[in-house]
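Listing S7. Sequence submitted for prediction.
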Amino acid sequence: MDIVRVWNFSDPHRYLDSEEFKTLMMNVVDMIEVGSVAKRDRTMAFGVLGESVYDMQQIRWVVLQHFIAYIADLTLILQTLHLVSDSPELSRRAIKLAVASYLDSDMSAGVHGRIQKYDTHLPLSESVDQGALNEVVKLTESFSMEAEDISKLRAQIRAFGSGEDDRW
């Protein structure tokens, strides 16, 4: 993943490329509550074709919101990991602690809340791609860890010492 590479972590065990980390990230993204195609009011008199177009547009918005969430969540988790990890190489323990602290923080709720409010009534077009990118940039610039939280997480990582690493 290019986003992971930019952070230049010392990850000789390739934890950030592992299926376990990808699953962990998908679980984070799945916590976002976005609209469901099945919940819409089908009493609108569009006919079958109209319903299909509407359903496809709704599915595209759900996918777009999940895409925005994935990129924003991943970026902020990696930022957290970068700020708290003072070890020469990454451990599963540090990764799991960064993810857990992100999920327990106001950042996660704030990011997902903003994504849920992302305007899904705009017509889908090529400009949506730029809009989604702009939204990711705004989200990652708006949310970050406080210095106090960083210190607490660093202390937690150090408290575990250099013993055996956690399992996924």
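Caption to Listing S7: primary sequence and predicted structure tokens for the chain studied. Residues 16-32+46-159 form one domain. Confidence is low (pLDDT under 50) at residues 36-45.
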